[in-house]
């Protein structure tokens, strides 16, 4: 887009909101909903007639713009139950967050936005069942790790076609790299626009490019989401106040983290607003009496990775004071376990939870950016599983599909299984992938608690009922070309009070 085109777009939009500007559609980034409760949900959109404007403001005029919204029981909006108006403001990247309340529990709704004579697409959302309700099953899909350059977002489209009731996104929604720095094994098939994301304008610009993708928009419009971030939503392997790449100067990482937090809020259907560089993302989403999702933040409060990060032997990882969650979040989580009455307590979190020894033989080489680098904190969480009826860990980050038994003692295969881990593969990160890695047999022998592995791209579909959780690992055979079909690579069942994966 040329500078002249951008200026023309801004001039055309000076009357946007007054009903006279109909030249450019401002709803190019789609709509979304999230963080549902029994009586409410967050509705989201962001105005950007020119998404790739370099200043990150999408070609919008430098003033507030009025946006109307409505929520209905039916897709044709014959039975509208709520409507209202909000202001899209420059200081919020022209994003709109509507926290709707007073709705009926366990019900499907439809929503849309309008401004300046333009109407957004229609989104589908729903409230959660009333507290204590056990009769409503839940179809939930979760995803993570969408590197724009590594492939097409077809997996998001297939996820939407599964029509889930709820979607969890477990981090790396976008990647921070400039063009060509992060290359997939089979080569990059698309290009990102702009520099590495450091400033608020950079992050806004990058989110706008991602959200312009039609497949991602379809997934957002299909169901409410509950989201948490991971490292690439800010910078690779960041840990609390620690920037992870000392070889690349980052003179003011707190300012960068604050910019990332602001942009994350502006682009996600969440309630929490950033305070400087702090954005509280850990929270609970309940589904009646059936399921409680404990959404965790494993980046913002952790200690720096031990032994300089990486995959290596590291005695320091076992130090009892090391924390992944931070004292406040850990206390919040364990208190939540103790007071839970849900049939299934589920952690929605980012990095690999189970111990994973990368090297055959007596020497343990573990990933120090994952929970293996924070072993004592993990032990405290696993001990907390004894307070709940069923514990399930959902994981992003690892760019492959894994299924594992969570052991009380990792180096004793005969020890009690305390819970189950389901790690989802990436949407695109890593490129097309393959069915297996050549080293898979050695990995399984070294890690007998790991029961499943697949290296294709995709997502995980689950169905929660009082008696069991069905887990379908959904995979695509390629993402280097758009339009791939999806198939179920494997299915497992977790039975009530019987942690572990049973093949279907």
From TrEMBL:
Protein name per the record: Alkaline phosphatase D
Cross-referenced SUPFAM superfamilies: Metallo-dependent phosphatases
Signal sequence region: 1-20
Domain PhoD-like phosphatase metallophosphatase: 140-473
Gene3D superfamilies xref list: PhoD-like phosphatase (3.60.21.70), Purple acid phosphatase-like, N-terminal (2.60.40.380)
PANTHER family associated with the record: ALKALINE PHOSPHATASE FAMILY PROTEIN (AFU_ORTHOLOGUE AFUA_5G03860), PHOSPHATASE, PUTATIVE (AFU_ORTHOLOGUE AFUA_6G08710)-RELATED
Domain of life: Bacteria
Keywords: Signal
Stored CDD domains: MPP_PhoD
Domain Phospholipase D N-terminal per the UniProt entry, residue ranges: 29-127
